[in-house]
Amino acid sequence: MYTVYGILYTYYASLISNYMYDLIIIGGGPAGVAAGVYASRKKLNALLLTKDFGGQAVTSAKIENFIGHIAISGLELARALEAQLRAQKHIEIRDGIMVQSVKKIDGGFEVADLKGGTYQTKTVLMTLGSSYKHLNVPGEKEYSGKGVFYCSTCDAPLMQDKAAVVIGGGNSGLEAARDLLPFASKITILEFAPTLKGDAVTQEALRKDPKVEIVTQAQTKEILGNDFVSGLMYVDLATGEEKKLATEGVFVAIGMRPNSDVINGLVDLTPTGNVIVDHKTMQSSAKGIWAAGDITDGSYNQINTAIGEAIKAVLNIHEYLFTDRV
User: From the centroid of its chain, how far is CA 64?
Assistant: First the structure.
């Protein structure tokens, strides 16, 4: 049975399905919002599609390197980004939208969302960022938010005087362990490889702390618990022995994966799925598609750099639309 909202959405979608935008921006994180602001100031006929605002930044308890702010929470930043975007006069915004696909059509591209809406555009700017990688082991999904965490800056305080496990020995894992130091009574780092892969200086600092134990050649098999996490099982790859580790918190820190699935097949990607771009213009291998922020190859995973990349992209898109195509 159709709801009133569903009927109105379908009607509106049918009206705009054949309308051609100059630019569709996909994503509402810092890069997407910066792109929207600059597209508005250039008076491009632009549409921004996003599920929500803030991107991965919204999960940060405190951001201390965002230029112009001594410190700001991720939630405050997300609200500020949305407010600045909505203050623009020449940008159409549709939030609560998840994009399903982008395909090539005559004269541009067609973007489809999961609600059945379609939008046509001359150019596309991808700013969908990246997502936390998952272990995909029993118990991970079940105890997510109940002892299984992905954002150490957000959830480390929950480990006050408790034992915590960090899965991952790269920079993400080492940063998570460092975030836990002021709170957890004990921190165990589990790394699949024979050695840690993260920054040597951070490794040295963690090894000197008596609260930190490092276990290499450890493959996590299952996360245990009742209502909340109580432990995990891992295999010692050196001996093949399965071991149990008691813990009240598991921080999964095995990196990020770019959210590039919707343009897979349209543009060249790295083996890890990042969009390969010309870093001067941020244009992808496909004419008419640009990308900025964490989704790109060579990304520094920084808010400030993502914003700069998005601005470069929009300026180049403007040139493409009104110079190159003339």
Answer: 19
